[in-house]
Design a protein that fits this description.
By secondary structure, this protein is an alpha/beta fold. The chain contains 26 helices and 19 strands. A seven-stranded parallel sheet has the order 3-4-2-5-11-1-12, with helices on both faces. The longest helix has 33 residues, at 361-393. The termini are far apart. Mean pLDDT is 90; it is low at 137-145, 332-339 and 341-348.
C-alpha cells in the first residue's frame, strides 16, 4: 500500500515540477498515470503481479509520469529503478534533460547514470596491446589481436584513441568517439567479459569498470533493451541490479518482442567455425604450459580430443549440405517456386528455411552430438581459463605473458557459447503446445563460399515471463503505440502477459485537440499502392500536396521508391529535398530546422525509421505525407516461419500479424505531426487501400480523431 507520507511526497514533487516549468498545465492524464503507476508498483492491485502496461498518447508526458510514479517509491523501499529504452534519442533525453530537471526541482534526492553494455567500452589494456602490436613488425600477437591486419589508417585511429584515453579527452565508449569506428577495429579492442577483468590489476582502470562503479551507486539506471536482456539472460543482477530489487520501466515497449527474439537467436558459419576450432587445441596447450599446475594437463588433453571430434562432426554437416545443395539452393532465380526459398539480393546470398522448423533426422542427430561436444569443450576451456587467472593472481605467471592468451581464450569462449547455443536449438525437439523454432541455412559467397546456420524462436512471451515478469519487483511497460486495432491483445500475447493474471492495463488519450488542429486527407488516387504505375502517380501529385505546408516530411515504404521520386522532383520541379541516406539523420534535422527558422520551405524524404522517434515540434513540421501504408512483407525466415505457424493453426497471417503490425506503424507515423498542444498541420495518405480494402476502416479507426477529408 502507498503510505500517506509517500502520496504527499509524490504530490509535492509534482507541484514543484509545475512551479518550475514554463507554460505548465497540470494534465489529468498525467496525474492519472502517476497514481496508477505508483499504486501498481506498491502492490495495491496485486501483491504478486506489480505490472502495468500503458499506452499513453503523444503529449501525455509519460517520462515525467513514470519517473514520479516509480522513483519516490523506490527510494522509500530501497529499490532501484531501471529505465530501458529502444532508441539512443530517448536515452539522451532522459539523461541530459528529464532526470536532471527532476533531480533539481522535484525535491527528490537520487543519482542516475546511463548504463551501457560492456562491448560499448574500450579495454584499456587491449588498446595498449593493439597500439604496440599494430605499429611493430613482429606479428607474434597479431594473429589473434587483429581479425583483419590493420592498415596505416587503422593504426593512426588506434593511436589517436589511445592518446585520447590516456589524456582523459575520451571516456572510452564507442558512442562518444568523434567519428565512426570500423567494426573490425572496435571488435579487437572492446571490453569483453573474459579478459577485461577488474580483479586483474592491469584492468582496474578500464573504462567499463569505472562506469560499473557509478552504476552500483546510482538509484536510477538508464539502459537499452539489449543490455536489459543481456543481464536477464545471465540470470539478472550480473550487469544491472537484481530483478527482485528493481522496478523496471520499459519505455518504447513495442520494440521489446523483436529485441528479445533477436537476442534469443544464434548463427554460425560452418567453414568459419572449423577454422577457429582448428586453433582451439593450440590455445588450450599454450594455456596449460603457462599454468604450470598439473591440474591443467587433463582439461587441455580433453579439450584437444573434443575439438578433434567437433571438427569431424562439423565436416559431416558441410558434406551433407553440399550433397543436398540442389535441394537447398537455387542455381537460378527462375526456379524459385518453393516457398522455403527466399532470394536476398545482398551479396547474392541464398536462404533455405526448414518448413515448420523440422530438420532432417541425420542433421538432428549430429546436432545432438555437436551440442554435447561444444558444451564439454566449454567446460574444459573454462577450467584452463580460470586456472590461468589464478596463476596470474598467485604471481606464477606474468600478466603481460598471460594477457594475449586470456583475450584469445575470451574470443574462443564466446564462440563456443554461440556454437553450443546454435546446436542446442537444432537438437531441441519442439513442443506441440508452442510455436516451433525457426531454423534456416544460407549459402554465402563473399570472399569465399560458406554456409550460415541460424535458429530463432518465433514467440518469446514465455522467455520474458520466465526471465523478467515472474522475477521482478515490479514493471511498467509504456509506449505511444502498444494497442493494435484498439486492443492490447496482440501486444499482450507477444510479451507473455495475460489479461487475468493481476497485470494492469491503462490507455490514456493524448490531450491534443486533434479535431481542430489537424486534418487527415485521404487522397484520391487512381492506382493501388502495389501497382507499377503508383510511383509515377506519386511523382505527378506530390508537388500539389507539398504546397499544403512549408515544413514537410514525406514517408516512403522503400528506398527505391523514395530515391526515384526525389530524382524526378529535383529534375522536373527543381525542388530542394533532403533525402534520408544522403546525409546523416542529425544533419538532416539540423538543416531542416535552420531552413524553417529562416522561413524557407523545407522538405524531408524518409523511410520507416523516420516515422518513429523523430521530434519536429511547432513550425518544424506542418505537412506530413504518407505515400504508402507501412505493410512489411515477411521477408526474414523468422517472419515467414511465424506466418507459416499461424496458417498451420488455421489462422490468417495477414489479418493476425500484418494488419495489427501496420496499425501500430501507421499510428506512429501519424504521431510525427502534432508534438505539442499548439501544433497544427495536415496529414495526407496516398494509399487508397484504407478506402477500398475491408481492413482499411479498422486502420483509420485506430488513429487519433483527426478531422477527416476524403478527396472526391
Amino acid at each position: 500500500m502507498l503510505s500517506d507520507k509517500l502520496k504527499q511526497a509524490i504530490r509535492q514533487a509534482y507541484k514543484a515540477i509545475g512551479e518550475n516549468l514554463t507554460h505548465f498545465n497540470p494534465r489529468k492524464q498525467q496525474t492519472l498515470l502517476i497514481a496508477e503507476i505508483a499504486k501498481t508498483l506498491a502492490g495495491e492491485y496485486s501483491k504478486d503481479r506489480k505490472i502495468i502496461t500503458i499506452e499513453a498518447g503523444t503529449g501525455t508526458g509519460k517520462s515525467l509520469a513514470y519517473s514520479l510514479g516509480a522513483i519516490p517509491l523506490a527510494l522509500a523501499r530501497d529499490k532501484k529503478v531501471c529505465i530501458s529504452t529502444a532508441t539512443v534519442a530517448l536515452q539522451e533525453q532522459l539523461v541530459d534533460k528529464d532526470l536532471p530537471f527532476l533531480k533539481k526541482y522535484a525535491g527528490l534526492n537520487f543519482d542516475f547514470t546511463l548504463a551501457k553494455g560492456r562491448q560499448r567500452y574500450v579495454c584499456r589494456q587491449k588498446l595498449t596491446l593493439a597500439v604496440t602490436t599494430g605499429s611493430g613488425n613482429e606479428p607474434a600477437q597479431a594473429g589473434f589481436t587483429f581479425a583483419e591486419k590493420p592498415d596505416a589508417k587503422d593504426i593512426r585511429t588506434l593511436n589517436k584513441m589511445h592518446k585520447a584515453l590516456l589524456d582523459g579527452s575520451w571516456l572510452g565508449d564507442i558512442d562518444s568517439w568523434e567519428t565512426h569506428l570500423p567494426q573490425h577495429i572496435w571488435h579487437q579492442v572492446q571490453s569483453d567479459k573474459h579478459s577485461c577483468l577488474k580483479n586483474l590489476s592491469e584492468h582496474t582502470h578500464c573504462p567499463f569498470h569505472k562506469a560499473r562503479e557509478t552504476m552500483d551507486q546510482a538509484h536510477v539506471l538508464v539502459v537499452n533493451h539489449s543490455l536489459l536482456l543481456a543481464d536477464l539472460e545471465l540470470g539478472g543482477g550480473k550487469i544491472l541490479s537484481p530483478p527482485e530489487d528493481t522496478f523496471y520501466i520499459i519505455d518504447e515497449a513495442h520494440h521489446l518482442p523483436k529485441v528479445t527474439r533477436d537476442f534469443s537467436s544464434a548463427s554460425i558459419t560452418l567453414k568459419g567455425s572449423i577454422e577457429w576450432l582448428t586453433k582451439l587445441r593450440d590455445t588450450g596447450d599454450k594455456m596449460a604450459k603457462l599454468i604450470k599446475s598439473k591440474n591443467s594437463i587433463s582439461p587441455a588433453l580433453k579439450l584437444g580430443d573434443d575439438c578433434q571430434d567437433l571438427l569431424v562432426e562439423m565436416q559431416k554437416v558441410i558434406n551433407f549440405i553440399e550433397a543436398n545443395a540442389n535441394v537447398y539452393f537455387l542455381e537460378n532465380e527462375s526456379s524459385a517456386q518453393n516457398n522455403n526459398f527466399t532470394k536476398n539480393s545482398k551479396n547474392d546470398e541464398q536462404v533455405y528455411r526448414f518448413e515448420n522448423g523440422i530438420i532432417p533426422q541425420t542433421l538432428k542427430n549430429w546436432a545432438e552430438d555437436l551440442q554435447s561436444l561444444s558444451k564439454k569443450s566449454l567446460s574444459h576451456l573454462n577450467k584452463l581459463y580460470n586456472g590461468l587467472i589464478e596463476a596470474v593472481k598467485d604471481g606464477d605467471t606474468q600478466m603481460y605473458v598471460a594477457e594475449p592468451l586470456l583475450a584469445e581464450a575470451g574470443f574462443m569462449l564466446q564462440r563456443l557459447e554461440n556454437l553450443q547455443s546454435l546446436w542446442f536449438m537444432y537438437a531441441k525437439s519442439d513442443s506441440d503446445k508452442g510455436a516451433p523454432m525457426a531454423r534456416w541455412l544460407e549459402k554465402i559467397t563473399l570472399k569465399r563460399q560458406d554456409y550460415l546456420l541460424s535458429a530463432s524462436p518465433i514467440e518469446v512471451g514465455f522467455t520474458l515471463e520466465n526471465m523478467l515478469w515472474s522475477q521482478c519487483e515490479g514493471a511498467v511497460l509504456c509506449s505511444a503505440t502498444l494497442r493494435a486495432l484498439n486492443s492490447f491483445d496482440h501486444f499482450r500475447f507477444q510479451v507473455g502477459l495475460k489479461n487475468n493474471d493481476g497485470s494492469q492495463y491503462q490507455q490514456v488519450d493524448s490531450p491534443f485537440d486533434y479535431q481542430n488542429n489537424s486534418q487527415l486527407v485521404i487522397a484520391k488516387m487512381d492506382n493501388e499502392a502495389s501497382a507499377p504505375e503508383f510511383t509515377d502517380e506519386v511523382i505527378a501529385k506530390l508537388p500539389k500536396y507539398l504546397k499544403q505546408g512549408n515544413a514537410s516530411l514525406v514517408l516512403f515504404s522503400s528506398y527505391w521508391q523514395m530515391n526515384k521520386v526525389a530524382l524526378a522532383l529535383r529534375e522536373d520541379h527543381k525542388l530542394e529535398i533532403m533525402v534520408q541516406g544522403e546525409l546523416s539523420r542529425q544533419q538532416i534535422i539540423a538543416l531542416h530546422k535552420k531552413r524553417c527558422d529562416d522561413n524557407k520551405e523545407s522538405i524531408i524524404f524518409g523511410t520507416q525509421s523516420f516515422s518513429e522517434g523523430l521530434d519536429l515540434p511547432g513550425d518544424y513540421l506542418n505537412n506530413l505525407i504518407i505515400t504508402k501504408l507501412p505493410f512489411s512483407v515477411p521477408t526474414s525466415p523468422v517472419e515467414q516461419a511465424q506466418a507459416e505457424y499461424v496458417t498451420a493453426k488455421g489462422g490468417n497471417p495477414f489479418m493476425t500479424l500484418s494488419v495489427p503490425d501496420t496499425s501500430k506503424k501507421l499510428v506512429q507515423a501519424c504521431g510525427r505531426l502534432l508534438r505539442n498542444e499548439m501544433d497544427e498541420g495536415v496529414i495526407t495518405l496516398l494509399d487508397k487501400r484504407v478506402v477500398t480494402k475491408r481492413y482499411g476502416k479498422q486502420l483509420l479507426d485506430s488513429l487519433p480523431p483527426f478531422s477527416r477529408v476524403f478527396e472526391k
